[in-house]
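Bumping my old thread because nobody answered last time. Still need a sequence for this structure:
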């Protein structure tokens, strides 16, 4: 799952001009990613080695309860519908069309995340030190000490930014909803989403439009 250690915010200028929520989502991910990258650097200074890397994906197969927020779902819908093409798109559509709720994440393609720029914050935050996870191993349970603790402040800042897309404008209100944990009522489980709906939209050749739901319309 792991952070890709981005040094800057992802940009999709044309799409961001059309879709105001996308800029908010990318800012949210940048806040979260920077905090995680800094936390990894601090551990590396202490001599720890990050085990996560390209092609390492046992975590994607064994985690069955990845939280995903409505804005993130909208981002995934957009990315799959508008940004994927060729064999990657075909493979994603096959996975999504065959998906049964409760199975492992359908976005894993040949041990690579097929939605990497838009993978949820929970995936971005899951980083393991030492040795790569064994197949079926959830390091969170087997060796909690090797799992990075994402910095609380950057995670809070990211979630506060997300609430802008839900129409919660006053900073104090966003902060209160994040600090109280109220924000988490918005989260769904990625593996419980009916991804066949997205497969059907790919077939229909529809543009992104709103995602599975309009994040701005979700009350909190
Ligand atoms: S080391 Fe574990 S958490 Fe990191 S990418 Fe590999 S399987 Fe995933
Ligand atoms: S979205 Fe799926 S494939 Fe991508 S990192 Fe998360 S669990 Fe892995």
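Sorry it took so long. Here it is:
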């Amino acid at each position: 799952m792991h952070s890709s250690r981005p040094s800057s915010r992802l940009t999709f200028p044309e799409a961001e001009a059309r879709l105001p929520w996308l800029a908010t989502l990318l800012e949210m991910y940048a806040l979260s990613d920077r905090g995680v990258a800094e936390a990894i650097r601090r551990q590396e200074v202490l001599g720890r080695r990050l085990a996560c890397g390209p092609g390492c994906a046992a975590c994607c197969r064994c985690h069955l309860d990845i939280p995903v927020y409505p804005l993130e779902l909208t981002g995934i819908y957009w990315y799959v519908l508008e940004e994927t093409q060729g064999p990657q798109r075909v493979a994603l559509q096959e996975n999504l069309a065959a998906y049964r709720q409760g199975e492992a994440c359908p976005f894993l393609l040949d041990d690579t995340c097929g939605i990497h720029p838009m993978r949820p914050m929970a995936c971005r935050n899951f980083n393991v030190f030492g040795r790569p996870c064994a197949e079926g191993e959830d390091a969170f349970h087997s060796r909690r000490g090797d799992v990075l603790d994402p910095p609380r402040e950057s995670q809070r800042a990211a979630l506060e930014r997300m609430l802008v897309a839900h129409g919660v404008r006053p900073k104090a209100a966003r902060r209160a909803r994040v600090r109280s944990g109220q924000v988490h009522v918005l989260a769904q489980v990625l593996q419980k989403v009916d991804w066949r709906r997205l497969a059907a939209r790919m077939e229909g050749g529809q543009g992104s439009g709103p995602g599975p739901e309009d994040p701005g319309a979700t009350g909190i």
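The radius of gyration is 17 Å. Let me know if any region looks off to you.
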